[in-house]
Amino acid sequence: MSAASEQAGQTTDAPVRLGPGDIACSRGLATWLSTHQVSLALSSYQTGQLFLVGVKPSGGIHFHAVGTNRAMGLWAEPQTLILATANQVIRFENILEENQRIGDADKYYVPRVAHTTGDLDIHDIVKLKDGSIVFANTIYSCLSTLHPVHSFAAWWTPDFISKLAAEDRCHLNGIALRGGRPAYVTMVSRADVVNGWRDRRDLGGCIIDVRSNEVVTENLSMPHSPRWHQGKLWVVNSGTGHLGWVDTASGAFQEVCFLPGFARGLSFHNGHAIVGLSLPRDGSFKGLPLDDELKKRDADPWCGVQIVNLDTGNVVEWIRFSGVVKEMLDVCTLPGVRLPSAASPTSPEVSNLRTIASSAKRVEPA
After folding, report:
1. 365 Cβ partners below 8 Å, 6+ apart?
2. Domain range enclosing 42
3. Total domains, the chain
4. pTM given for the model
5. Which SUPFAM superfamilies does the record match to this protein (predicted)?
6. What is the pLDDT of residues 57-113, one digit of tens each?
7. Which residues of the chain have pLDDT under 50?
8. DSSP state of 342
């Protein structure tokens, strides 16, 4: 990707080509993934890549890049991936049976359904128990569902948003499920004017209870990726660089650890948090406490993933990108998957990936 196209925020459908120095991993990452029987799925907004991270039969780390037209919010299950892109929501399905392999891959995800939404700047996306999809419609400042005719149907709108307009008023970006239903959302501010959140990046970030419309807390800085996990409301306070949880009674934010980058994307597995990190877009985190936090620690910002032990707050394993990959948008786990792979929606191989459902039965006409 040229420097000019990167600065313009353009994306590419082609898999990004990583050179020998463009990616580094902690020495124990492969062992950690194998021990915890999990793989990772990462979306990289600015390069448009879906990265799948697993372990080779030889024991080394395997990275697979899938080109998309911007890779945004991501929902992952062992059999299904749901990815928001620049103008579509794409559902990938694993086509391999339990003992089948394509190369070394034990899961191979193929794009099966693409719902065209137009550009909604979709951040978090979740699948409910009934199979329906709800997403953070950031452009329109609401939670939305897919619609068979229109770009979306509004599912929930904050009570301070006076009008559905493509103005990214409050930068509503995150969804926390509780009991299988959207329970909490994050937003950068409670602004009700076009791009109003940009004037409130340092403080004013809030979490709202979807069920009651009550504000849980409003003293955060650019919060993202709320998650209800083991009885706590976790969130990344992206503007300060801290992972922590919010006391839903008092609204107090309890810091667990500092992460050296713009944190966005959060998943949990076996007592650990997996968090995505991004570099600043303009070379600095101007106007954010994160800038001072990095200076205080004499640290450079990261792009990549860090795995945090929730008991100690220590980073136990990590992935670090350099070169063309500068931003992560979402991070998901794939429990029970050793080496995932996938086909790009625009790749030539999709034309020849024809599979027949083995459980299909012929139905005779009445």
Report:
1. none
2. 20-347
3. 1
4. 0.91
5. YWTD domain (SSF63825)
6. 999 999 999 999 899 999 999 999 999 999 999 999 999 998 899 999 999 999 999
7. 1-12, 361-363, 365-366
8. E
Widest pairwise Cα distance in the chain: 76
Helix (H) or strand (E) holding 236: strand 232-237
The confidence score (pLDDT) of residue 202 equals 87
Give residue 92's region: left, alpha or beta (phi > 0; psi -120 to 50).
beta
Q: What is the CATH number of the domain that holds 310?
A: 2.120.10.30
d(CA 248, CA 115): 36
Reference 136, options 116, 159, 152; nearest CA is: 152
340 located within any domain: yes
Whether 284 is in a domain gets the answer: yes
d(CA 327, CA 321): 9
Does residue 62 contact residue 56 with C-beta atoms inside 8 Å? Answer: yes
Is position 302 within any domain? yes
Q: Which contacts qualify for 130-136: CB closer than 8 Å, 24 or more apart? A: 133/75, 133/82, 133/89, 134/175, 134/182, 135/73, 135/84, 135/89, 135/175, 136/73, 136/172, 136/173, 136/174, 136/175, 136/185
Q: Rounded distance, CA 253 to CA 100, Å?
A: 46
Pairwise CA distance, residues 191 & 168, whole Å = 9
